[in-house]
Design brief:
Bact_Acetyltransf; alpha+beta; 181 residues; Aminopeptidase
């Protein structure tokens, strides 16, 4: 069973998983993702980072950060950018990435974000398939890789919960999403 926990992006497990992700990028693209990341961008209420654990071992991660219209002409006020989605190779094919993505969407919506946006790549067919099957559709390019021929950009409207006050989980809160294998 996958248990998702909100952590700081500089938590030891998040750092290790992000290092594995960067190695994956080196293999697939010949270099790392050079998008600037400020760890505070993933702090509530304007962001969140989660690590997925199976039997106490960190097996996957992902986060969202608030992005608003003034930062990039293609982004809108209320956007949440999905970043650093990763599942370790030995744990792929079990639905963990889908569970992480669903939790990121849920918490972004709970924080009042209206749309999830992301950049993926042509050498990541598994990721692209996940996003398309999760309701993401192509959007105009944005950010550091807007001119890269290897980049693909997707967005999805988020359903903001109605009729109740919500908050994004604080670092250290247990996320509510679990998934069985």
């Amino acid at each position: 069973m996958l248990q998702l926990c909100a952590v700081s992006i500089d938590h030891v497990d998040a750092v290790r998983l992000n290092a594995e992700l960067q190695q994956e990028y080196r293999i697939r693209y010949g270099g790392e993702d050079t998008t600037p990341i400020d760890p505070t961008q993933f702090d509530a209420p304007r962001g969140l980072f989660v690590v997925g654990y199976v039997d106490g071992a960190a097996v996957g991660c992902g986060g969202w950060r608030a992005r608003d219209g003034g930062e990039d002409p293609e982004l809108r006020s209320g956007d949440a950018e999905i970043k650093r989605m990763y599942v370790a190779a030995a744990h792929r094919g079990r639905g963990y990435a889908r569970a992480i993505l669903a939790e990121l969407e849920r918490t972004a919506a709970a924080a009042g974000r209206q749309r999830a946006v992301l950049e993926s790549g042509t050498h990541q067919p598994e990721s692209v398939a996940l996003y398309r099957s999760s309701g993401y559709e192509p959007i105009p390019a944005f950010g550091r890789y807007r001119d890269s021929p290897n980049s693909l950009f997707f967005g999805k409207p988020l359903a903001v919960p109605s009729g109740r006050a919500t908050r994004a989980p604080r670092t250290g809160d247990r996320a509510s999403t679990t998934t069985e294998r």
